[in-house]
Design a protein that fits this description.
6-stranded mixed sheet, mainly beta, about 10% helix, about 375 residues, globular, 10-stranded mixed sheet
């Protein structure tokens, strides 16, 4: 519903038509006896221990931890009942060497507020609802908005919504209406969706009500992000209510787990300020989940409000001269160029920290190894 602006860094569609052999996971018992892994391995790691890991998970042992190795490690971690994050850490090493891996709740695991689960709530409330007080007089939500790593969300039979402990602090949104650019996907709110059921649920609808002194037209676009991954773009606006809808699910929450979703905003360059902007999930009916699961929480769940400020030298990057080639690729040669573009900084010295490319075609991300970005040719 909004036009693309210069400040939008979500890049590219590039097309590849290549075929590689898929990844297969093999038994790691023999490899574990033949070699030892003593350190954490992740994308970018190199050396003999990477070769050891690659041999164990059934990929080419070239000693370079790339996307193919990560995909194979994730499959292996799933088979071992571990979190499939593709990072071969302490728990993965223990499983690799035949040791015991603990995946249960640890009383020493820290909540986002810096307290342990045990010290916040020595015994789970009964029922474990966000409005029920823990023995220390605090609510479960205010003590630990999201469960510590490895800790399961208590079974409540519902999905609860709360404000994340690291919800963005009130600040300023910058707009340059002389060049038509603004901060791109500036974080303005962060919510935690906790699934207290024994099955995965999909969140199909999220409605945010605009707060503050502003107009609906002052907002160019809104986005939902999980970490660095954009999961949704604004679907509709109707009198202060900004809706995200997807009948197939905006995002999924595993059983007895939680997911943090943050809201990014693009302000309209024609905004006449000053204005103040904030968002809230006003009621349980503003969140629709699959299978008719009940939604609970202490509503409204409201973010902080942000002021707008107008400047005339907001830095931005122009992407031009995009070229896609060649038409077909031979999968055997290495270091083949598939795409190039020119990035030009305007008004300020700019740092390009992250580029997201969308792969289009019949190949899968796991078929691509060591995709690199070269600067200057």
């Amino acid at each position: 519903m909004s036009k693309l602006l210069k400040s939008k860094f979500l890049l590219g569609v590039f097309v590849l038509a290549i075929v590689f052999v898929g990844v297969a996971v093999v038994s790691d018992s023999a490899s574990a006896q033949a070699c030892t892994i003593t350190k954490t391995l992740r994308v970018g790691s190199k050396g003999d221990e990477v070769k050891c890991l690659q041999a164990a998970v059934g990929v080419s042992a070239d000693g370079s931890f790339g996307p193919i190795t990560k995909a194979a490690v994730q499959t292996w971690q799933t088979s071992k009942g571990l979190v499939a994050d593709g990072i071969f850490g302490a728990k993965s090493r223990a499983a690799f060497s035949g040791g015991t891996v603990s995946t249960g709740t640890s009383t020493g695991a820290l909540c986002p507020n810096g307290m342990t689960l045990a010290s916040n709530c020595a015994t789970s409330p009964t029922p474990a609802a966000t409005v029920t007080l823990c023995p220390n007089g605090m609510t479960l939500a205010s003590n630990c908005a999201t469960s510590p790593t490895g800790a399961a969300v208590p079974t409540t039979g519902s999905v609860t919504v709360s404000l994340a402990s690291d919800n963005p602090a009130a600040g300023t949104l910058l707009i340059d209406n002389t060049t038509g650019v603004m901060q791109n996907a500036a974080p303005v709110a962060k919510f935690v969706f906790s699934n207290g059921t024994g099955a995965e649920v999909k969140v199909n609808t999220v409605k945010l009500t605009r707060k503050g002194i502003a107009a609906d037209g002052d907002i160019n676009n809104l986005f939902l992000y999980e970490g660095t991954t954009k999961v949704a773009e604004l679907s509709s606006v109707a009198t202060k209510v900004f809706a995200f809808n997807n009948s197939s699910g905006l995002f999924s929450i595993p059983a007895n787990s939680s997911k943090a979703i943050w809201v990014g905003i693009n302000m309209a360059v024609a905004t006449s300020g000053p204005t103040s902007i904030g968002f809230a999930i006003d009621s349980a009916s503003d969140v629709v989940v699959s299978s008719g699961t009940t939604v609970g929480g202490s509503f409204p769940v409201k973010s902080n409000e942000f002021l707008t400020a107008f400047i005339t030298d907001l830095g931005y990057i122009d992407l031009t001269s995009t070229t896609t080639f060649p038409a077909t690729l031979d999968p055997k040669p290495e270091a083949q160029e598939v795409w190039r573009f020119t990035a030009t900084a305007n008004s300020q010295k700019m740092t390009l920290k992250r580029i997201v490319m969308t792969l289009v075609g019949t190949t899968s991300p796991g078929d691509i190894q060591d995709l690199t970005l070269s600067v200057g040719g």
